[in-house]
Design goal:
Layout lengths: L11 H10 L4 H11 L3 E5 L3 E2 L11 H14 L5 E7 L2 E6 L1 H10 L3 E7 L3 H15 L4 H15 L3 H8 L3 H9 L5 H8 L5 H8 L4 H14 L3 H11 L17 H12 L3 E7 L2 E6 L4 H12 L1
Parallel strand pairs: 2-4, 3-5
Antiparallel strand pairs: 1-5, 3-4, 6-7
Helix pairs in contact: 1-2, 3-4, 5-6, 6-8, 7-8, 10-12, 11-12, 11-13
Length: 297
């Protein structure tokens, strides 16, 4: 069993540094914390608060429990990274999964590096370290990229430099946030891949996008099949321009609501005097059966 480390078991040198920080000058405090940043200290679990900039949104409970069982036997091998707030309070920079598992395992203290960091540096360090060490899903990565751009005033190119990615890679991740919520959730749940999401991103029509998404999920289409299906839905190019008839007031909203509800392209055609047609587009027999089930209720 891994031994539960008590507060008094901190190394004498580290403990002295921690206890003397508050009574020192600002310059001495900074120097003390810088020295600690290169030394592993045993920090009581209850003194560490979570990182508000944590890019990981969801944690697998089963995986956490498995890690906790391992920590009971071997202890925390890879130190956490934290920053000091007060004499007995710290904030996590990276390692929340290990911290959560340590709490489940009943450990009283965990090894950690103590670093100096302001809020912007916290956000950047949390993102970079978690992307390198943890299996974040693409939507979590995209959300954190967007936060870095918004909160740290970065461009796609400068963000790519910070996280070691090409600008195009950053742009592709950010594009995922423009997908409908149900497609984003499927990506988080690993029901579709980044390749599928990229194929769907190339479609501007929401109804068509959702229709193809349904086919990908129900049929288990490969990325190549999804790309071909997406291309088949694109409107054919014509050499002559057709006059676009404007729908009467209210019809456009009804058309959009029907498209969203059915997950298919719906077109309303007005013939005047309150008459018209509803055209529902489907891509396969399975898609047609799905639409019939929805209509029959």
């Amino acid at each position: 069993m891994a031994k539960k480390v008590k507060k008094q078991e901190l190394g004498m040198g580290i403990r002295a540094l921690l206890s003397n920080i508050d009574s020192s000058s600002p310059e001495q405090q900074e120097e003390a914390v810088r020295e600690l940043s290169h030394t592993v200290a045993m920090i009581p679990v209850e003194q560490i608060e979570v990182n508000p900039f944590q890019p990981r949104i969801e944690f697998d409970e089963e995986a956490l429990n498995e890690l906790a069982e391992s920590l009971k036997v071997h202890g925390v091998i890879q130190p956490l990274t934290i920053r000091r707030l007060t004499a007995d309070a710290y904030q996590l920079i990276s390692g929340e999964r290990r911290l959560r598992a340590a709490k489940i395992a009943g450990l009283e203290a965990v090894p950690a590096y103590v670093r100096l960091a302001n809020d912007q540096e916290m956000l950047e360090m949390a993102l970079v370290e978690n992307i390198q060490r943890e299996d974040l899903n693409p939507i979590e990565v995209a959300i954190t990229y967007q936060r870095l751009i918004d909160e740290c005033d970065l461009t796609h190119e400068s963000l790519g430099d910070r996280v070691g990615k090409k600008r195009s890679t950053v742009t592709n991740f950010l594009g995922l946030l423009k997908l409908p919520p149900q497609i984003q959730q499927a990506l988080k749940d690993k029901r579709i891949s980044m390749g599928h999401a990229k194929a769907l991103r190339g479609i501007d029509d929401l109804a068509v996008q959702l229709s193809i998404f349904q086919e990908i999920v129900t049929k288990g289409l490969s990325v190549r099949d999804a790309e071909q299906l997406a291309r088949s839905y694109q409107e054919p190019k014509t050499t002559t321009k057709k006059a676009v008839k404007r729908l009467p007031d209210g019809y456009q909203e009804v058309q959009e609501k029907l498209s969203s509800f059915l997950g298919a392209k719906v077109q309303l055609k007005s013939q005047g005097r309150g008459k018209g047609q509803i055209v529902i587009r489907f891509g396969s027999n399975d898609d047609l059966n799905r639409l019939l089930d929805l209509i029959e209720g």
